[in-house]
Known about the structure:
The chain folds into 2 domains: 1-30 and 128-156 and 165-179 and 353-384, Outer membrane efflux proteins (OEP) (Single Sheet); 33-97 and 180-350 and 391-498, Up-down Bundle (Outer membrane efflux proteins (OEP)). Helix 6 (184-250) runs antiparallel to helix 7 (256-290). Helices cover 59% and strands 10% of the residues. By secondary structure, it is of the alpha+beta class. The protein starts with 6 loop residues before the first strand and ends in a 6-residue tail after the last helix. A 5-stranded mixed beta sheet has the order 1-5-4-3-2. Residues 1-31 form the signal peptide. Keywords: Lipoprotein, Membrane, Palmitate, Signal, Transmembrane, Transmembrane beta strand. It comes from Fibrella rubiginis. One of its GO terms (cellular component) is plasma membrane.
Amino acid sequence: MKPQFILKPVRLSVQLLIVGLLPLSSCQVPKAMLAPSQQPIPTTFGTNIDSGTATGTSAQSDQLSFVADSTGIAGRHWRTFFDDKELAALIDTALTANLDLRIATQRIEQARATFDYTRGFLTPQVNAVASAGLDRYGQNTLNGVGNFDTNLSPNIDGSRRIPNPTPDFFVGARSTWEVDIWGKLRNQRKAAYLRLLASEEGRHAIVTGLVAEVARYYYTLLALDGELEIIQKNVDYQRNALDLVRVQKQAGRVTELAVQQFAAQLLNTRSRQGQVRQQIIEAENELNRLLGRYPQPIARGRSLQSRELPGQVATGLPARMVFRRPDIRQAERTLQATQVDVDVARAEFLPSLNVTGYLGLNTFRLGTLVNPASVAAGLLSGLSAPVFNRRFVRANYNGSVAQSREAFYRYRQTIVDGVSEVTSQLRGVENYRQVADLQIEEVQTLSNAVGTANDLFRSGYATYLEVITAQRSVLEAELALINTKRAQFLSLTSLYRSLGGGWE
Length: 504
């Protein structure tokens, strides 16, 4: 027996519905959203020395003595920029074990899953179905009368007679498909893809911030190590001075007051050692937290006392920085996604075309389910447009527009913050360099003053108070110098992050 197909005809009225629904829907579709005006980006990072305000033109601004070339920050990976094997090892550990970075990675996986999910809407959804049902039709119903009349036909006999109640068995496939006539589904996929890119840029931003944060705590530790060295050196100087004044007291040249003053100064300096050691413990614990591990000693190189700041830093232009900073690129991708969301919301005002179909075995007797005569197929299309629920569609559209504008202002704010950060850090690196040069001369001068005061004190031409003052002054100057060098390295580290790290 040849299989018999029962095919439900496609509704020929679809064309008429399209003609009828389009005027009803399209006449009230909102106009395309106009993007707010963008604030122009400066062409340089120039900063006026006297006023400290950005001028935006190289002719009217004092340009920093930094060279923009391919060997600068923008083109250098952190491994070559932070040329320290101990720091590189710490950064490697952080990039492997940091929990914030792992969370960002899972956000990327979520965005990728959302993108894969939206891709499925562009193709028909096909589901395997096995169903069973039972209907009892009343004698005064359309199906009841029709089935009774059918059973009286001489062409119907045996298993083809319709029982009442009537079972309904189906095994096959059913399909639903929204035809993307307005590009709504394609735009949903595009928005999901842009958010996937934004999540990846967000991870890049976290990596850049993590590298800079590890470097910041590392240089802080090196500065604290330098403070300990300075304090220990001054403790030795002050201990020798205390021994000297005790000898002077035995010789009757000074009183017990002088001994007490020198002893108190020594105790004050030694107390600073305990404070610095506590700061070292706190900095190590913060660094270990970034490394995703419990507190333990941090291996590190020599202190900042013997380190010099790199002499050249490349900056490039703000226009290039826009494409370099991960947070700006993330904000840009998010802005693009919200703009596409507006297009999706606008398409909700237009009619949607849905097609459903099925193909399988359908019978009212289980014993005839695998019979070729039970093969059945159907196809149905429908066009629908919002009429009475348009206020909900409009509310969704208005919300999408507001989100898009918010994303635009966040994007612009990110650019403004980025340009401001780079300008501040560039000026900070140069200013701290000048301060450090002057402080080096100050330390040398005060160190000579300590030797002079000691010689004069031995010969009786200077008082012990002058010696104490000289010793205290050189200690404060050396500590100020190491703090300035720390500010130099931290400013350079912040500049590296402000320029987007090594991302291209």
